[in-house]
Write a structure and sequence with these properties.
This protein has 150 residues and is an alpha+beta fold. The protein is built from 4 helices and 4 strands; from the N terminus they run βααβββαα. A 4-stranded antiparallel beta sheet has the order 1-2-3-4. It starts with a strand and ends in a 14-residue tail after the last helix. The chain binds coenzyme A.
Length: 150
């Protein structure tokens, strides 16, 4: 079940922080774009960072009464291309729930929540799980950007 993220709800914030802690602990395996491997932010820092994400809409995915994933839609800039991306989807599933269809279900529900929009995903080419998930939902690779610095 897709649930709108509520910044006033402690259980929502705690789950979001739990996902972040897991990403830091397993950074070698949980290979995601945009994660700088400096020190793990404190719970309070994470909360304040989340509240500042005013171009993002966050959701949690609940499975059998438990929060198991977070999905979002946001506007962002790409570190690799310097290009702004509107409607970028992101998804994070607790590792113990991987490969059970949760990521697909959560992204699918987010797409239904935002119909008639072109939605983008930034995917690390080494992240085959993510690539397969988005391919399965009909996403196509459109990147063919060249540039020069002179
Ligand atoms: C990427 C991620 C969201 C996938 O979530 P998930 O719940 O495991 O995904 P699903 O179970 O829905 O699987 C999606 C597809 O991935 C593929 N897949 C599953 N296991 C795989 C594996 N070991 N290797 C490669 N592809 C795999 C399958 O094609 C699967 O589709 P299927 O249902 O037809 O088998 C999850 O691994 C995750 O949170 N990773 C860390 C954060 C991240 O990388 N986010 C994406 C960047 S925005």
């Amino acid at each position: 079940m897709l649930i709108s993220f509520d910044y006033e709800n402690d259980s929502h914030l705690k789950f979001s922080y739990q996902l972040l802690v897991e990403r830091y602990q397993n950074a070698d395996r949980i290979n995601t774009p945009g994660l700088s491997l400096t020190e793990l932010p404190s719970y309070q820092d994470h909360f304040e960072w989340l509240r500042k994400q005013d171009t993002a809409t966050y959701y949690l995915w609940q499975h059998q009464g438990e929060f198991v994933a977070q999905v979002f839609l946001r506007s962002s800039s790409s570190e690799m291309t310097d290009l702004a991306i509107r409607n970028e989807v992101g998804v994070f599933v607790l590792e113990q729930y991987w490969e059970a269809g949760i990521g697909t279900a959560a992204v699918s529900a987010l797409l239904e929540e935002h119909p008639h929009k072109t939605i983008y995903a930034k995917i690390n080419p080494e992240n085959k799980r993510s690539e397969n998930l988005f391919k399965k939902l009909g996403f196509q690779n459109i990147t063919n950007i060249w540039s020069v610095n002179h």
